[in-house]
Amino acid sequence: MKKIVLLGYMGCGKSTIAQNLSKITNIPFLDLDICIEKRANLSIKEIFEKHGEIYFRKLEHEMFLELLQSSENYIIGLGGGTPCYANNHLLLQRDDIISVYLKASIETLYNRLVHNKSKRPLIADMNEEEMKEFIAKHLFDRSFYYNHAQHKVSVDHKTVEDTVNDILAILA
Ligand SMILES: Nc1ncnc2c1ncn2[C@@H]1O[C@H](COP(=O)(O)OP(=O)(O)OP(=O)(O)O)[C@@H](O)[C@H]1O
Ligand SMILES: O=C(O)C1=C[C@@H](O)[C@@H](O)[C@H](O)C1
Ligand SMILES: [Mg+2]
User: Which protein residue's CA is at the shortest distance from atom 9 of ligand 2?
Assistant: First the structure.
């Protein structure tokens, strides 16, 4: 069995989908953001504030490599930016993993992010217009990296169950 890696923009549903997929498949789920927080003993927000983004990206790369190297089988939910730094996008193509890009529109992302944006340092202080413009530009820049995933699943207008079923079909 290969490790399953879920990726996509902040709020596309990586953590939610991975948790549900984990329950069905009995493969343990690891959220890369949470692994980083445990290792640093700080929240992601605090790591950005205290040490800056470059330090965070280094930790993120090291932790991603460490999880991929582990002999245990996992579903790994990446951070929204993980594929876009430190050549992590090339790791998505390893043949010992299955990588899935959860692809969401700007509208879907806005609607999902607006409720708990304070936890996400990149958008915490933005109003609606700023957030939509930021997501549009950011998604455009990041799509190049996200598209290195081996599989793409559209999540717009889908329930958690729909998306989990789409991934199960890929694994079948
Ligand atoms: N159909 C759906 N599929 C997945 N998540 C959904 C869906 N509908 C609503 N949500 C909500 O969208 C929000 C964002 O989901 P989640 O935190 O899993 O995203 P994420 O991709 O892990 O974000 P981040 O990169 O910031 O960790 C959650 O509050 C989740 O409950
Ligand atoms: O999109 C991003 O760059 C990020 C997404 C989150 O998952 C966290 O990894 C962090 O807030 C950075
Ligand atoms: Mg998450």
Answer: 79
